[in-house]
# Entry
Amino acid sequence: LLAQEAGLKVRRHPGDVATEPDSSTGLVQVSLQGTPHQVSGTVQGSTPVLRQINGATFKLPAPLSGPLLIYRAKASDTSALATLTGLLSKAGAQLLSYHSSSTVAGEQWSVVGLSAPLPNLSELKPRVTEISQLHL
# Structure
């Protein structure tokens, strides 16, 4: 329901949602730019939060609100974050939150809360495996 209210297309098929043992977390499959991902999350207060994506867990759940940048990059390569801060500076935007996941197959997911969407991600794309920008 929250995804639909945010303007995201939601299709539910029987068996798509599995409840995890604590019963407050749902496991769903979503697509970012056509690529399917398994994610789990919950709602804290009135804010949806991401707990896991494709088996990579967030130590602190990542809030899913406002302009967001979600990307996957090699855990050993810190150039993506350095490039991102440069892009934010050029755009006059601020980094409001940053959450990184555990490492799976040498890569980490990052969820970045922004004060405004970035107009151009071309400098960042060569430094990441996958990237999506959305506004929730």
User: Anything to note?
Assistant: Residues 15 and 118 are 36 Å apart (CA to CA).
